[in-house]
């Protein structure tokens, strides 16, 4: 049962599908219709699921959806959240229901999944160059006349490839493109102002294409030097706005509006401020944020960044973003006095931007979970095991359940074909699917 708003997407087939024993995290021993999950009465703290199990706290999801909607409304920016964070149609639907302009994606298979479930507007935050990927997108645009699709370009060669493909496809509408501004030594994107303008001019002149806007990803400039990162990001955004004006002065944009887009999950407040009030152009400007991790936040990397955001931006909505994603496991072994081995590893939780954070222990027979001391830490993970170091005076036993927060939602979601949704008492209310 989908317990979140569906945003008009076609999600019934997910609830209707039959799940077989072997679905990660589920305790089933016989076939079960997915829509019946919320009626089973399972509670994660009672040991009713398989472990490890990944779960989403419904109240935190709802808070974050509402918080970001209010943020965007206040700063008059649109939101096209990066769907590669979750790749979950149910979560796409919840984001669209809470005002998202569209969904951002990174690959063409991701685009096809989103379109399959009814997403009508996609921003591909990537260059489109592979022949089969180009054919797939153009076919999708032909088959679904209402489907809006935008991609990026950072080279004249790439523009020419797309122009030839559109002309040869029989597509009766133009393919909208945004020029990607990059940064020296970082990933894709034009390295200089003149390159941005040259690519923009090439798009405007190419048959079958339309220059829709300018895009960048300020996250490539983020580092441990927090103040330095803010300075670099603000400069990056200022250059984007200047190039937007220059391209408009040359009459390069098509369509009814001009898009300017940036905004990962660490500095989207700076993007909202940096794009505020861009006016006086030939047509209205639509600033689009693309933060994806806001939906679940985390207990590590992004939690730290969004705490800084709340301190930096006094006009942000109250309450901040809340961690919504947890991974629960069971204590498998106590081989040494201060060491517990958990049934959770690299196959279950992210480890690229920090190891999981132990939060709670549910002891067998206890009425409620208790907090794990801050001195406890997971210091190592294998494929299916986590090493939890325990401080002196704190003990847990084989069979106890341990709840962990994670750092970096993207690389936890991709490890779970299904995540359970729970209420604040950890009662399972539903589930969401992922497609990686």
SSE blueprint:
Layout: H1 12-16, E1 18-19, E2 32-33, E3 53-57, H2 58-75, E4 78-79, H3 89-97, E5 103-105, H4 108-116, E6 121-127, H5 131-143, E7 148-153, H6 156-169, E8 175-181, H7 193-205, E9 209-216, H8 226-249, E10 258-262, H9 268-274, E11 285-289, H10 301-312, E12 325-336, E13 339-342, E14 357-362, E15 370-371, E16 377-381, E17 386-389, E18 401-405, H11 410-413, E19 418-422, E20 428-433
Parallel strand pairs: 3-19, 4-11, 5-6, 6-7, 7-8, 8-9, 9-10, 10-11
Antiparallel strand pairs: 1-2, 3-12, 12-13, 12-18, 13-17, 14-15, 14-18, 16-17, 19-20
Helix pairs in contact: 4-5, 5-6, 6-7, 7-8
Commentary on this structure:
The strands form three sheets. Strands 3, 12, 13, 14, 15, 16, 17, 18, 19 and 20 form a ten-stranded mixed β-sheet that branches. Helix 5 crosses helix 6. The protein is globular. The mean pLDDT is 97. It is an alpha/beta fold and 436 residues long.
How many domains? The number is 2
Number of helices: 11
Would you identify the CATH H-level superfamily of the largest domain? Answer: Alanine racemase
On the 0 to 100 scale, the average pLDDT is: 97
**Counted beta strands:** 20
Structural class: alpha/beta
Overall morphology: globular
Low-confidence stretches: none
Radius of gyration: 23 Å
CATH class type of the largest domain: Alpha Beta
Give the end-to-end Cα distance, rounded to a whole number of Å. Answer: 21 Å
Largest sheet: 10 strands, mixed
| CATH-derived architecture of the largest domain | Alpha-Beta Barrel
